[in-house]
UniProtKB/TrEMBL annotation, chains A, B, C, D:
Residues at the catalytic site: C158 (acyl-thioester intermediate), H262 (proton acceptor)
Organism of this sequence: Kwoniella pini CBS 10737
Any one biological process term the GO annotation gives: methionine biosynthetic process
Gene3D superfamilies associated with the record: Dihydrodipicolinate Reductase, domain 2, NAD(P)-binding Rossmann-like Domain
Coiled coil residues, start to end: none
Enzyme class name: oxidoreductase
Record protein name field: Aspartate-semialdehyde dehydrogenase
Catalytic activity: L-aspartate 4-semialdehyde + phosphate + NADP(+) = 4-phospho-L-aspartate + NADPH + H(+)
Job of this protein: Catalyzes the NADPH-dependent formation of L-aspartate 4-semialdehyde (L-ASA) by the reductive dephosphorylation of 4-phospho-L-aspartate. Mediates the second step in the biosynthesis of amino acids that derive from aspartate (the aspartate family of amino acids), including methioinine and threonine, the latter of which is a precursor to isoleucine.
Annotated GO MF terms: aspartate-semialdehyde dehydrogenase activity; NAD binding; NADP binding; protein dimerization activity
Highest rank taxon of the organism: Eukaryota
Family in the record: Belongs to the aspartate-semialdehyde dehydrogenase family.
Alphabetically ordered keywords of this record: Amino-acid biosynthesis, Methionine biosynthesis, NADP, Oxidoreductase, Threonine biosynthesis
Amino acid sequence: MSSSDKKQIKVGILGATGTVGQRFIQILSTHPYFKIHALGASSRSAGQEYGKVTKWKLNTPIPEEIKTKVVQECKPTAEGFAECGVVFSGLDHDVAGDIEEAFRQSNLIIFSNAKNYRRDPLCPLIVPLVNPSHLSIIEHQKKTLGLEKGFIVTNANCSTTGLVVPLAALEKSFGQLETVMVTTLQAISGSGYPGVPSLDILDNVVPFISGEEEKIEWETNKILGGLNEEKTEFDLHLNEKKKLKSINVSATTTRVPVIDGHTASVSVKFRNINNIKKPTIEEIKKSFKEFKCEAQDLNVPSAPKHAIVLHDLPDRPQPRLDRDLHNGACVSVGRVRPCPVFDVKFICLVDNVRLGAATSSIMNAEIAVEKGLIV
Amino acid sequence: MSSSDKKQIKVGILGATGTVGQRFIQILSTHPYFKIHALGASSRSAGQEYGKVTKWKLNTPIPEEIKTKVVQECKPTAEGFAECGVVFSGLDHDVAGDIEEAFRQSNLIIFSNAKNYRRDPLCPLIVPLVNPSHLSIIEHQKKTLGLEKGFIVTNANCSTTGLVVPLAALEKSFGQLETVMVTTLQAISGSGYPGVPSLDILDNVVPFISGEEEKIEWETNKILGGLNEEKTEFDLHLNEKKKLKSINVSATTTRVPVIDGHTASVSVKFRNINNIKKPTIEEIKKSFKEFKCEAQDLNVPSAPKHAIVLHDLPDRPQPRLDRDLHNGACVSVGRVRPCPVFDVKFICLVDNVRLGAATSSIMNAEIAVEKGLIV
Amino acid sequence: MSSSDKKQIKVGILGATGTVGQRFIQILSTHPYFKIHALGASSRSAGQEYGKVTKWKLNTPIPEEIKTKVVQECKPTAEGFAECGVVFSGLDHDVAGDIEEAFRQSNLIIFSNAKNYRRDPLCPLIVPLVNPSHLSIIEHQKKTLGLEKGFIVTNANCSTTGLVVPLAALEKSFGQLETVMVTTLQAISGSGYPGVPSLDILDNVVPFISGEEEKIEWETNKILGGLNEEKTEFDLHLNEKKKLKSINVSATTTRVPVIDGHTASVSVKFRNINNIKKPTIEEIKKSFKEFKCEAQDLNVPSAPKHAIVLHDLPDRPQPRLDRDLHNGACVSVGRVRPCPVFDVKFICLVDNVRLGAATSSIMNAEIAVEKGLIV
Amino acid sequence: MSSSDKKQIKVGILGATGTVGQRFIQILSTHPYFKIHALGASSRSAGQEYGKVTKWKLNTPIPEEIKTKVVQECKPTAEGFAECGVVFSGLDHDVAGDIEEAFRQSNLIIFSNAKNYRRDPLCPLIVPLVNPSHLSIIEHQKKTLGLEKGFIVTNANCSTTGLVVPLAALEKSFGQLETVMVTTLQAISGSGYPGVPSLDILDNVVPFISGEEEKIEWETNKILGGLNEEKTEFDLHLNEKKKLKSINVSATTTRVPVIDGHTASVSVKFRNINNIKKPTIEEIKKSFKEFKCEAQDLNVPSAPKHAIVLHDLPDRPQPRLDRDLHNGACVSVGRVRPCPVFDVKFICLVDNVRLGAATSSIMNAEIAVEKGLIV
């Protein structure tokens, strides 16, 4: 069934006036079957036209039909949400927990970009190019909470997303990783609006992003881990009982004067099982180049043609030049070379506002549609 | 003997119109005993007034007495150089090799910022806050070349300089290091003028600097190594015969939109000798804070009050706010914390155009004066 | 006849590896009827594949079919050019004069972005949203030079282009202007690659662009002027004999740390003919909003839906947010308000690399096709 | 009497934790006779150590003795203020009005950087390099308000300050001006901290600063105007009854990605009195170069050696290279050239956080000390 044959699905957007909410609107306004139906924001904006309460910061205009749409409060009973087949959440974490739970309890389906439920043992944490198989815990989530329809799916932190895609390619080709050392150079858009004051970042680097390193170190293991056979429990790499399997991740996160696009310097060591010969640099490059993921197999509308774009030029990827590849839905990898300390070093780049945020939520929902989880 | 009592020493500057040359002039114009006497540049500029041939790019004006000084060719026979007690070289590496050799053969003393002689087994590669003891190979250099007076001393690559100072502090307190993983975020001034095109770096990161990673990985071991008893050979950490002692360094170098100041994300593992207990984070912080170096003991004019400034705020050091500390002659260290993979992670920052270039050359020369090597 | 029915026209690109040349390729690779057939560059690149000799700096990849195309020398006899119905020139002015003349003498049709022939009394200087009627001098150009087919059409300097579109709207509605005072804030891409060194522009403004102010002051009058009845001579506003009609333009041009998009602060005084009442701000806004140009009437493929986008928000237009409107083919105008000194002040913005360069050339050629000048 | 012989004067700083407050502290910490005695901030900070409540954003460390100083509420009765000979105010305008009035009523002397009293007919609005003579209205201010000692002196808006210094030089040499057209390119620090969000200004220009154009257009006339003979009333250029004398100022203000330093593009027309011959460009340059002001005659500690630095290089002044000249206490002027519309065009540059803010307040106070107004 092609996308154009799909029946239209009404969607809601929570946090619609914020940075991630604006991206949801920009991307969804041309979506083949998701149709924006309800917009939720703070009570300060509710009751007013979207165009009047939003400081729109994207370089395409507000879609005409959205401009005059009346914003609702973020309540499941607010006009429009009840009819939504999917509700996307771009809420700030300080309010996301309660609001998303209220929506779920009202039997609504939430795909959230917020961090609140990422560590929840019932909620899948899905990078669509990596682990859509984790959606199979949803049955257990609904059952446990006694809900007929409502559930929450989260996507990963933006910088984690850019990292786990190449790591997944490596694990798929060469088995489990033992150690990952990563230093990120993150874009200002990752911190929303108003976000980073210009006085802090012009001609500067801020070598600290609160909570970010912990997210990368923890989320990586949940995403790259499996589910048990009963599809009721995550086989966390970090799981204490299965210590051997966890990947030892060490992250340093910094902010740089870049608008969009998180760059990461990564060094990786493979787990040495049975003294199997380590892959060559050429074999590693090949594994990146040929990496195929379920989102591509399912051919969902937001899936990139290539999950990983491998760059050959020695000075790529670069955020300004490469973040727009495949509409920001892929991860760029370059400078694949031996590491004097571990096995291989490379640079990776993700569009933090698209694959790192809104596009992941949307692609996750597309995959859920394809798997019959949204009806 | 205080600085003001020192007798004046005439100095020459090679590559005087370039980025590093301009810094030499800026710093030396207020030096207590080095007096600028001769300026050397390409034959295109020779014979003309300095102010007329130089695109001065510093935020202090050209010193008045330098503005009208006539530029010479970079030949030891050009007017003025013969009287110089010290010749500083800010030459580009494509011409530095031959010119510096010609000056040395004319029994002149060169302190060079160029990379050409850094790996020379007769030339000391000195970061003044780390290994001025390497100056003792100079006797052997002069003897081997049959020179009465002439010699060459080099200082390190700018990013290496920022790294080895905290590494030296750690080795001084806790013994030898085994592994260093470093990712740098380097300023545009590191590449000179015109250097990095603005189209390449505005709203961007360039994850590659040609030859830079190799410099960090190699120079670190020469600088942190020793000299044999006869003061004729460097006890390179990389020395094949003494393999165990070399530090395994893995560097990734990137360029970011910062004017001055190289930031580095560093993770370090101590060599585990006799299962000695590893230092705590507090002990490591203390070692940074209390690090004292020979340049400070000798109280040379350019020595910073603190070789390392330890920052407690979680988001420091930052290039724009911290590069000017102690006139750019110290290294800032912050975010000292445990590394899940190695022993300790931290951020360090060096002013690449001062301690990372001109200030190192000048401080090296001051130390040489103090040790009686310049007469 | 719709664009898709048009017969394909082979086109050549001179200066194909440069900044403007890359834009020509990017835009033309999806053009409905212009097909890239020949690529010309310096003899250094000639004979090699385009992808191998070009430092591609756009954020979309080199079109696949162009990557392996062999680059030719910029000679009319070089392979491929003879078959081209149109040759676009993105050459630097230091070589454009001779090369474009050689192509014209070979009866080829050149649409040039270079400045060399802009002041030529036989060559039209056309901003496609303003004065395509000037194409009617081409007959005279060919006749004068004794050429059957070859001619040269130029487009304006990038900053002039952004200025004359709103000026044309004002003149169309309210008659001739007397005085224009303009200060520009120009993007770095206006100076090509490598262009502006990053050390010159990060955290900085350079209040000078060589030759730029003269171009704005002079070109504005040629573009906004007419042709005589015989279509053989430009009725320059600057024409000495018709002094009264020239617009008094005073320009100051500056460079700011913006990648693409020239902003201008403009103040304008209407010529007071017969003491006619001056238009109100509302009438002026209406004239901008409703401005229609011949390119739109002809419905050529590159014509924007709106020639001028009028912004109501008090802090717009902004280069980063508005340069992409209508694919960079329109001019944004905002902050229309009374001027205490002249009649009206406003801010305008043009995408300097699209409407300010390649898009103008292409749209000019499209108009020429529509007018039967290219056969 | 030299500065060092002056008796120490205790000073207070209101708004001490803000951007301007930090500059007051930075500059005053090395002042020859003003000694920081009391620090005032919001009740949120009051009672705590300065170093603990301040996000210090300058590139020199907090002075040691200030770090541990306890912050007070901004009340004249709060500890320490009663003993202050001068109170500097870096308060935000939303609170400055009431607080400064309360301090004045308590017979304290306020030098304020806030805008609240700039238009007050009793308060002098002083740019120290231009109109310290306006201090003579203070007697009238105190008398009118029935205060023995308390008064308020304001300094100008940062962008006005940079403009009026060269205008004053022109008026001094060539008589009154008729018209001034100015477009500014203002630094982000002008909007305080957090101020401009980085997402708004990286790779961008914001062509609007709320209220700024009105300030320039109005303040210029008060500053360049005189006082009546009785020293009780400002002879405003804008004064309706003396309409002929007001300068017609038209300002456009924009924000650019520059940290410190406001640049302005200025065009000026002289008032044509008795058909006197207009000055030549050389004469105008001379008038800038030789401009001397009262602050220099009085030789107050913060007075720059040159009030105006005239630049000869065609691409100067530039904010990054020239804002630090004379410790940011002068105005740089360059590109002095004929204007096709008015008489002369030039570029000027002021350090908006020093002469444009804190340094003006301090220099005004120094002049008041010299004139015996502070006892």
